[in-house]
Write a structure and sequence with these properties.
0% of the residues lie in helices and 9% in strands. With 64 residues, the chain is largely without helices or strands. It has one domain. It has a two-stranded parallel ribbon with strand order 1-2.
């Protein structure tokens, strides 16, 4: 069983969320870096290429 990890930062939307987090050390663009219909990461320069962000909490240092 994994323990929840509390993160702090600047949140883009107010509210609460619980779920599986995808944590990246590199920023990602939602304009061209993610397929809006599937949630798949399509940015070929990003280490998360091929992963899916749909229904997950995305944690990264910033957006692009």
């Amino acid at each position: 069983m994994t323990r929840p990890v509390e993160r702090t930062g600047i949140f883009q939307l107010a509210g609460e969320a619980r779920g599986q987090a995808l944590v990246y050390s590199q920023p990602l663009s939602f304009w061209g870096g993610i397929d809006a219909e599937t949630g798949d990461i399509t940015d070929h320069s990003h280490p998360g290429l091929g992963q899916n962000v749909a229904g997950r909490i995305l944690v990264m240092p910033s957006g692009r």
